[in-house]
Design brief:
The chain is mostly helical and 177 residues long. It is built from 8 helices and no strands.
């Protein structure tokens, strides 16, 4: 059984940590939120979005990346834009190289089923770019990426509400006996 003084100390520590978490980060988060603007999403991409990440930017400024990563970005753009918007992977929350390997394996299988095989020589450069870019934009600048991700989720939820409204306004299909 925990004694009252020990319990009191634990409760005070817990309350202090919670207060720091809630109020300690607020000014920084507000400052970063106001400094970051997420470009508007083109209407055609909003209508066809399958994931919140589809609604974000579909390019990355790689001008400050090493030359090898700039070349890898060119391969990534060529290989990945054949099947889906680049926004999907650019804004996805994944930051782990192992996850990107899994993701690319899935894309290889899907592209093979469509008869549009990914060139095996493209896999390493794409994986290297996604890994490097994830670290630069999503890990090293985690607070900024969190602001972007939150905005994209808000847009996606809003677009889903609009899609549902449109579907509900359509006439019901007639079911034949």
């Amino acid at each position: 059984m925990i004694r009252k003084p020990v319990l009191s100390v634990l409760l005070l520590l817990s309350a202090g940590c919670a207060a720091w978490r809630v109020w300690g980060d607020l000014p920084i988060a507000e400052r970063e939120r106001s400094a970051i603007s997420v470009p508007a999403t083109p209407a055609e991409r909003v209508r066809g979005a399958l994931f919140y990440s589809d609604l974000g930017p579909d390019t990355v400024d790689v001008s400050r990346y090493p030359a090898a990563q700039q070349r890898n970005y060119e391969v990534y753009v060529r290989a990945c834009s054949r099947c889906h918007t680049l926004a999907r992977s650019i804004n996805a929350p994944y930051v782990n190289r192992a996850w990107w390997e899994f993701y690319i394996t899935n894309m290889r299988l899907r592209s093979r089923l469509r008869g549009e095989r990914l060139d095996p020589g493209d896999i390493r450069p794409v994986l290297d770019f996604l890994d490097h870019d994830s670290y630069e934009r999503k890990v090293a600048s985690a607070a900024q990426f969190e602001v972007i991700k939150t905005e994209l989720k808000r847009r996606f939820e809003s677009s889903l509400e609009e899609r549902i409204d449109l579907l509900q306004k359509q006439p019901s299909p007639r079911i034949l006996p």
